[in-house]
Amino acid sequence: MLTVYHLLRTCLWTIPVFTFLWSVPAFFITYGISQALNHTSDVFPYISKTGTEVPERGLFSLTVFVCSIALALNAEIRFQYVRLMMTQMSLTPAEKSRWITLNKLSLALGLVACFGLVFVASFQVDTLPVPHYMGAFATFGLSLICCWIHAAITYKLYKEERKSGLKYTFIVQILVSLATTVSFLTFIISFASYRYQKSKGYGTKENELRDVFQSASSSEWVLAITTISFVLTFIPGFRTIEFDGFNVKFKSPATNSKTNICLRLCDCCS
After folding, report:
1. What pTM was estimated for this model as a whole?
2. H helices then E strands: how many in the chain?
3. What is the Cα–Cα distance from 51 to 26, expressed in whole angstroms?
């Protein structure tokens, strides 16, 4: 029987897949519900605005909270994977200390970013905007830093191991990090511009400020999707490790040689 324990034990690569498939469709589902019930305006809204009314508010809070837990789990497993890789690399003590510190930093920032997401899920933007915005900016800002740190770590792993898989992973991580950075800057600039112009009475999002508002809301959606998509780059590394109930370790050669997804899922059932 396929159980969560078996998935965590030998199919750690399913965790990034679950994170993406759980989170991204949920945003569109809450948006669809809010639109169907006329709880949002005709202007494309911020993600948080799709989960401020009943019944979509409960779904939004639930999905975002589960997303935060899944992202935290990804951060921990990625930390353990990099730690294992460092043990088999020929590094000087100074180099090893520097990269271990960077790996710990990525874990710490990632967990804080996930905690910020809990604030987003717990405090609605219409009722408690301050903690909601604090959580959102902590999540997006720290996640962006984590993306670049992970890309740097992957590049170091590739330089030491010279494996093509690591090279392709690094390239994808750079592309996703660039997309995340551009969408983050676009969101910050557009959001600040909209808030400033609105405070000065230059118009509303339905009329004069429609373009700048939609620039902010659209870039936020892209930012959220690219940030969550980054965890998919962890899949190749996670396929080489397993959880034995106490520790994360490399898979045995016999298990690691099975590259077919169906065979891996069958392993989880055995």
Report:
1. 0.89
2. 10, 2
3. 11
